[in-house]
Amino acid sequence: TLGCRSARTPIALYSQRPALRRRLGRSSPSASFPDSKLRNKLHSVASQSSATMRGAAWALCTAHVATALLAPPSPAPKLTQRKAVLTVGTPLNWPDALDRLAYVREHGIDQFVEMWRRSQTLTRDDDLLWGDEVEYAVLRVTDEQAKISLRGPEIRDALATKEEAHSYRTEGCAWHPEYGRWMVEGTPSRPYGGYAADLLRVERNMRLRRRRLLSELDSDEICPTLVTFPGFGVGDFCEGCAELQVNGPVAQSASVPDSVIHPHPRFATLTKNIRARRGGENVRARPPRFMDKNTPPGSSFIEGLDAMAYGMGACCVQVTFQARDSTEARYCYDQLAALAPVMLALTAASPCWRGVLAATDARWDIISASVDDRTPAEDGRGVSDKDDRLAGSGVRQLPRSRYSSISRYAFECDGPAGQVRRFCDVDAPIDENAYAKLKSAGVDEALSRHVAHLFVRDPLVLFEGLIEEVDDKSATDHFDNLQSTNWNTVRLKPPTGLGVGGIDSNPAEREPGWRTEFRPMEVQLTDFENAAFSVFTVLVTRVILAFDLSLYVPLSRVDANMRRAQRMDAATSEKFYFRRQLAPNEVSEAQKFVNCCGGDDDDVFEEMTCLEIIDGKGDYFPGLAPLAYAYLDHIGCDGDTLARLSTYIELVRKKASGEAVTGASWIRTFITEHPEYAQDSVVSPKIARDLAVAAHDVGLGLRPAPELTGGQVIKPITRSGAWDTRLSADKIPTKEERRELLARYAKRGPFRGAQE
After folding, report:
1. SS (H, E, C) 138-201
2. How many Cβ atoms sit within 10 Å of the Cβ of residue 295?
């Protein structure tokens, strides 16, 4: 090995510095060490030999970290003040659900209060457990065309059956339904833990998922990790179901048949009820069209995206972390919300929709429009009749869709009044009754407003027999109903259920604690890329906690960053508002909150490129990649693990610098260089087919794409070895089979393997 430390080095370091312990309400000596030790560690990292890492560049970046974190900033800032299992049952149509919406909203708050009270009576000190979710598209391919294959539920069921038979294995996969009938979602069967070695499990498990999914496909099916299939919604684009007529009763789409929706009744009901709540109007997304040399004039937008499937059929990769307690989960929620646009830009991989190249690279606004259930009065597009059964009577102004960036930070700073709150500068209406109930129950201001903002929406899917029948003292169904249909860049997830928990409970029996789900990233073509971004996100959360960092910027700037992140080549051409000084000042007690959330605007943040955010800027901003390296050195990560993790960190840096292209750039180049492309922004069925096959082959390591992976070679993935082979003692069924098998090997030369 390159190092002598164990690969089981714990990465779950929390709140190492006193300022963050104050902010997170901790003072335990076991969870901290003196600032002088951290200072010495950083200087040691900066001066150590760089032979095991990136040569001189490693020494420079660690020195940069030490300088930026330990030296006073210049200029000095001025002082200013579960993933839920799908419910089985009969869903209610919108007219039948209307009279019961208020009950669910009211009792959803009651359930949260009950959960909150119980969680406050328990001293939680949960380990870092985390996981990722990757979504796959299943396509059927001929020589001339690719179509979505509607065998997703069948494939998922087959995979789940085999996984159960292989449950004795330490490493396995879990498979979940998704909105699209052509989609499958895969996760690790058990969470990753809080050790450096667990970071290496991620790519291995992702490769295992792809191998096992591949093993269940028909010979003419493929499973590329494309955000969206470019041919979706164009002509005859789906296969595998008898009923493929458009303008069906659920979506009423002119281009997408209802049969593409997963058959679980929740998904169709969600689609119908969103349309019904909008006043019977179809959803509508209109991404700007890429204007090429021969693009017809007057066609500035891509039209016809009139169904929820266009957005909810977009594949992504998500990461969820368990925090030690609610305070830490809320702090990570806030910090990751500020980081979300940068990660969206770096992972952008969806430059074409409905057979047309777009002038954008990412999916976010498409999904936002595809699930927008606001009435005309709520979003300002028209006038609506007042209906007191709806939240806000259906006429309260709602400035954004249910699918959006966050509207409020959730952390309650213990600094002077107005500190974190001053950055909540976007319109975020709340349900006043919910807010009053939360405050009277003792929930703090920030969390009360966070939850009350979720409840300005209506529940969209209610199940018969699961409304008044739900016990608020033992279940959280109604809270989860609203929580799970507020789709933001980050989601704060309370404990699942109201049962076992607390520091004295058996960890094996303990229910999941407070978690933060990071949702902006687009799925990448290779498991190496998906693992790199997932691992990098985990490392950033550890860096934030260990070095006591703050990424707070005004939410209006986060919204601006989200808009910029979706533009073409945003990873290398756009600038993002980002906090210029991350670490707390070594100053008096009176000034300790300046870096957390104070300072004049010009001192708090500035515009930076992705490369500056990742690699650092000047002598005052260290960069997230150097911080990650310094953190790994600090925890004593062993050399072998560090060597692999460095390839992940370097890929993120290369995406930011342009040394490695984004998925969107690779797809755009493939399309525009295809022999059939006519420079008219149209992606023909043949181009879409060839792109899907190429993306599939890149994911399997059969087609080199060093421009995507930063030079990393992807080891080929095949069906072989997807499942264990049982040493069966069962008798070979017939004499003919035994005779043929024996004859095949009786007269042979030296055995050269199964290909003989």
Report:
1. CEEECCCCEEEECCHHHHHHHHHHHHHHCCCCCCCEEEECCCECCEEEEEECCCECCEHHHHCH
2. 18
Angle subtended by helix axes 201-215 and 152-165, to nearest 10? 120
pLDDT, tens digit, 9 for 90 and up, residues 484-513: 999 999 999 998 655 555 555 555 556 788
Bridge partner list, 132: 319
Structure tokens belonging to residue 391? 């939240």
Given the DSSP bridges, would you call strands 173-176 and 146-149 parallel, antiparallel or unpaired? unpaired
Q: Are 335 and 550 in contact (CB under 8 A)?
A: yes
* 3-class DSSP assignment, residue 654: helix
Tokens of 17: 């510095």
- The secondary structure of 521-584 as a DSSP string is PBPPSSHHHHHHHHHHHHHHHHHHHHTT------HHHHHHHHHHHTBTTHHHH-EEEEES--SP
pTM score? 0.89
Element (H, E) at 204: helix 201-215
d(CA 389, CA 386): 9
Strands (E), 337-482: 352-353, 356-357, 403-404
Dist CA 690 CA 146 (whole Å): 8
**C-alpha–C-alpha distance, residues 702 and 644, integer Å:** 22
Q: What tens digit of pLDDT does each residue of 546-568 get?
A: 999 999 999 999 999 999 999 99
- Name residue 506's amino acid: N
pLDDT in tens, 88-107: 679 999 999 999 999 999 99
Please count the other Cβ atoms lying within 10 Å of the Cβ belonging to residue 172.
18
* Measured distance CA(269)–CA(539) in Å, rounded: 39
